[in-house]
Amino acid sequence: MRAEDFIVSKTDAKGRIIYCNPIFIEFSGYTEQELLRKQHNIVRHPDMPRTAFKLAWDTIQAGNDFFAYVKNMSKDGSYYWVFAHMSPDIGANGQPVGYTSVRRCPQDHALDYIKPLYAQILAAERAAGGRNALEAGFQVLQDHLAKEGKSYEELVLTI
């Protein structure tokens, strides 16, 4: 990503894309028509631990903002890293009716920190297998956070 870029997308409550800005279209390599009504995980890179997305969904579905470093995959198989800010769009009933995500170019030092952590989480998920993957990934994350003495949000916002 370029430093001045912001990738913006909006989804419905089930995570289907209902809006994507031209920068998202450019970096994803998909056309707008290929993105609209598709699950946002169309750009999920297989190097991303499931734990990160479970934490994201749990947080935004509870009505809270979520920040994360995310490795996305373009249509052609290439990838790009982003620093994502995900927010719930709250409806009249007080429940999320959709989500907005604004992503920007991450700083290199943050990626130098997060890449090995994600690799450890992903390795734990794979070693544990499908049924126990999330539990294993969360344990690695929790152990790391305890060692750092920070919450996930504090860690992400201070690296």
Q: Report the principal-axis shape.
A: globular
Largest pleated sheet: 5 strands, antiparallel
Look at the structure and give the CATH class: Alpha Beta
> How many distinct folded domains?
1
Helix and strand composition category: alpha+beta
Residue stretches low in confidence (pLDDT < 50, at least 5 long) are none
Question: Strand order within the widest sheet?
Answer: 2-1-5-4-3
Radius of gyration: 16 Å
Average pLDDT over all residues: 96
Percent in helix = 40-55%
- Our measurement of the CA-to-CA distance between the termini, rounded to an integer number of angstroms, reads 19 Å
| Fraction in beta strands | 25-35%
Blueprint of the fold:
Layout: E1 6-12, E2 17-20, H1 22-28, H2 32-35, H3 50-61, E3 66-73, E4 79-90, E5 96-104, H4 108-128, H5 133-148, H6 152-158
Antiparallel strand pairs: 1-2, 1-5, 3-4, 4-5
Helix pairs in contact: 4-5
Give the key terms.
159 residues, alpha+beta
Provide a descriptive summary of the structure in words.
- With 159 residues, the protein is an alpha+beta fold.
- It has one domain (6-158): 2-Layer Sandwich (Beta-Lactamase), CATH 3.30.450.
- It is built from six helices and five strands, in the order ββαααβββααα.
- The chain has helices at residues 22-28, 32-35, 50-61, 108-128, 133-148, 152-158, and strands spanning 6-12, 17-20, 66-73, 79-90, 96-104.
- Strands 2-1-5-4-3 form a five-stranded antiparallel beta sheet.
- β1 (6-12) and β2 (17-20) form a beta hairpin.
- α4 packs across α5.
- The longest helix is centred in the C-terminal third of the chain and has 21 residues, at 108-128.
- The radius of gyration is 16 Å and the shape is globular.
- The mean pLDDT is 96.
